[in-house]
Amino acid sequence: MAYQPKSYRKFVATAATATLVASAVTPAFAASFTDVGDRYKEAVDYLVANNLTQGVSETQFGVDQQIKRVDFAVMVAKAVLTQEQIDSAKDSGFTDVPDRGVKYVNALKEAGIANGKSDTRFGASDEITRGEAALMFAKAYKITGNTANIAFSDVSERYAAAVAALVDNKITSGKTPTKFGTTDPIKRGEFAIFLHKLETLNPVDPGQTAKKITDVKAINDTKIDITFDGAFDADIADEIEKDPERIVVFHGGQTANSEEVIKSSFISFNADRTGASVILADDVATVEAGIEYTVALMNGTDNEVADVVLKSQPTVLKAGADKPTVEVNKDQDKFVLNFKKKMSAEALDLSNYTLYDENDKELGELTDFADEASKWVDSTEKTAVEFKIAPGTLLAGKTYKVKVDVAVETDKGDTLSSSQRTITVKTPSVSEAQPVAKVARIVGESIIVTFDKDLDGEVNFNRSLITIKSPTGKTLTIGAGLSTSGNELIIPIEQGAGDVVLDKDLTYTINLPANGVANEVFTNATNKEVTGLKAVAQKDIEVKSVKAELVRQSDEKTKADLLLTFDQRVNLDTLVADGVTIEESGKEYTLQAGADIEIYSGDTTGKTIKIKDVRDAFDNDFTPESGETYTVVIAVGAVQTDAGDGAKFNRSKLKASLTGVDVVAPKIDKVTVESAEKIVVEFDQAIDAKNLKASDIKVLGFEKYRGGRFEELTLQGSTQLKFSASGDTLTITPADSSVKFQTGAGDDALALVTIAGAAIKGTNGVVAEDLLALEDESDFIDNAAPIMIGADATVPDGLTVTYSEPVDFDSADAANAGSQYTVEGAERDSYGTTATVADNEVSVTFKDNVFEDGEDYSQTKVIYKRNSTSAVQDADGNEQANATLTGVSNSN
Fold it and tell me: Where is this region: Disordered (predicted)?
């Protein structure tokens, strides 16, 4: 609590604990002192946390130790004086003060708080008594009391006023009912209790019931709302509002008097003056994430010379970037770094990440472990980065650490704290990463075994340990040249070895030993033993039927794969791409050459193929939608039975019905402004809004303040907005009567309503990760009539009414237009004689002089009653309804 001049004592309030994001909790410093009991704990915590004093050792506060006058002076000066007052004070003339206390004693004397025991002697080494402490405390904190209430027998006239001040303000009640202990030395424990009570004291000024801040909330990046425990005097509130730079925000490297503080640009008390809304300027600096700030009310607009009247505890005003996570995707081939917030381009640069093993040994930059350039998981959201893991660079079943460079920050400049920049990542266990054989089939003179994971290309099987047997138990001879391709192991069979040959009409049983092939990415994970795998014979039978299914990818819901299941196994090598099409209401989408196609390992018969990512695989921007039905068409001669060279192609066109799945997030289809108090947002699909918060929604609008003033704002958060969701519709309404929406958005139509990414998803689970906004102005519907949002008395006989959008009169008759307006509750009631309009402002001239300079018209009413010839309307012909506006600002 800073020492304040007497002329400004009416503004003094406690240095309140005020939080913007979460309540600040004073660290439990007292817990480290073994001599601090419950009586002293709160006071000691406060003093140590605010750097007013420390313990006498790491384990002792010294509650029973006495205090020298110089030490007392240092602590009191730190508590009540600014650093400038301490540093600039003139020499006191005392010759017995040690260097550590000189500037503090100088400052206390200059401020009239402390005197010496003589002109040259302060008594620095003397133990300070309770009476002397009372004198300094009363002067430092400008408190008074009634000496008639003093019943102590040991308080002389010299100390009476000071002791009365401490007693009446409930700082102390004396040592006994009859003894204050005036000449007793004050102990450090007593001092801590006294100073803590004084620091949190709320002197009551006549006419002012607000004593402290009870709550402070951050509404958005630039607006804060402050709540007091009582009402401010109207004159005080008016004076503060007229000097809107009296609130400052500063961090630990600054003081309230620093040049670089963030100042308020707008302060407005609510109607009963128990709270205030504050808008912060951003011309010098902006609040940074993760940094503790103090919010202070000053006694002037020039913060470099003004004093602090009220301040908050240091606390984080704006949350920093969330700690990212790193994981391996379900397909076990990618690293995904999820930041949970929109990031800047530095997050894409893999040289900004360094990989360490579990023993903190540096392994290199992530560029050394990537098989391709990194990319955004969603290029519009930019909250997560992924890159393909270079084969053989990492091991399964290991724990690694990724350290993030300080250059990586959000798109708003928020950075990670040092503790957040080290992220632990675990690779899949060896068992999870082991390739598992799923399908075996006969292809030409080989048997091909399909695994559920790609293989690294090395084959380490001992051929003699591989057994392939016919139905009668005859063993085939394994030829030389075992090889892999993708996720397939190719086993050549020697033909004509004795009487055993590979017969495509038979089914063979395959046994493979363990550890013959390895996972392409995690090469320490080798295959498990395979027993009894069947390579079912595929006879040369023409493919005559197909079934089709769309399946969303497990780790990328914005992608879907097409599964085609035939009645025979088909040869992928001879598949004719442009012979596979998807048809929908006259539109045709053709499979492109080079599409990613493989045997689907989830079907052990080998009859299903998987066409990956249909949006990429088919032309003409094919995008499936839930509820839609498509037809898959396989042209004649497009697929060949997998029965070796010369096998049959299909001789008839094949068709299969296909049900769509949504692979895109919901989009805003239409925005309808029903009124200044209701907006209806329609989406292109049903939405799941259970995770949506009012802070995720932004609406252009207005908020009215005391005295008729209003601000054009981006409305956001539960204090300004409410919403409800049903089906494909989101309805937004104001949370308070002082809030109105912009009508007739005009050029702002596309920005009127925006919804944060990752707040809404379709009922299919696809998240709307990018910012949601209307994309076409033709889908904006304005059914809202204009409303009066503010009025300003500009001349004695006139005022200007501001509307929620540009307006006009439906006739040019100024007199008829003016007669629609009356004013009540000013110096006199009157009616309009003329009115003119310009953009969204109507200037009304009244019959009488109704406003005077300097008067408060916060309860004055402006009444609009439309007539048949000059109604107020917007560009779409929506007419203003009869209305009353309460509160006129006075710039007359």
Answer: 869-892
Per 3-state DSSP, what percentage of the chain is helix, strand, and coil (rounded to 5)?
A: 15, 35, 50
DSSP state, residue 770: S
Per-residue model confidence as pLDDT tens digits over 277-328: 889 887 777 777 667 788 888 888 888 888 777 777 777 776 655 678 888 8
Looking at 760, 782, 804, the residue that finishes a domain is 782
* Tally of domains in the chain: 7
| Contact by Cβ (8 Å): 247, 276 | no
Are residue 566 and residue 490 in the same domain, yes or no?
no
- Looking at the fold, whether 275 and 407 belong to one and the same domain comes out as no
Instruction: Label residue 588 exposed, middle or buried (CB < 10 Å: 0-12, 13-18, 19+).
Output: middle
* pTM of this structure: 0.45
* Cβ-Cβ contacts under 8 Å for 227 (sequence gap 6 or more): 213, 214, 215, 216, 217, 274, 275
Containing domain of residue 230, as a range? 213-316
Cβ contacts of 380 within 8 Å, gap of 6 or more:
757, 769, 770, 771
Q: φ and ψ at 146, to 5 degrees? A: -100, 115
What's the mean pLDDT in 116-126? 91
Let me know if residue 276 belongs to a domain: yes
**CA angle centred on 701, ends 700 and 707, rounded to 5°:** 150
Per the domain annotation, does 8 fall within a domain?
no
Q: Residue 640 and residue 657: Cα distance in Å, rounded?
A: 21
Cβ partners under 8 Å of residue 382, min gap 6? 342, 343, 347, 376, 411
- Cβ-contact 695, 806 below 8 angstroms: no
Assigned domain for 155 exists: yes
| Burial class, 369, CB count within 10 angstroms (exposed 0-12 / middle 13-18 / buried 19+) | buried
Where on the phi/psi map is residue 652: left (φ > 0), alpha (ψ -120 to 50), or beta?
beta
**Do residues 607 and 637 share a domain?**
yes
What CATH number does residue 817 fall under? 2.60.40.1220
> Please, which residues have CB within 8 angstroms of residue 675's CB and are 6 or more apart in sequence?
741, 743, 783, 784, 785
**pLDDT for residue 415:** 74
For residue 799, being part of any structural domain is answered with yes
Q: Which of 626, 659, 692 is the last residue of a domain?
A: 659
The verdict on 449 and 414 lying in the same domain is no
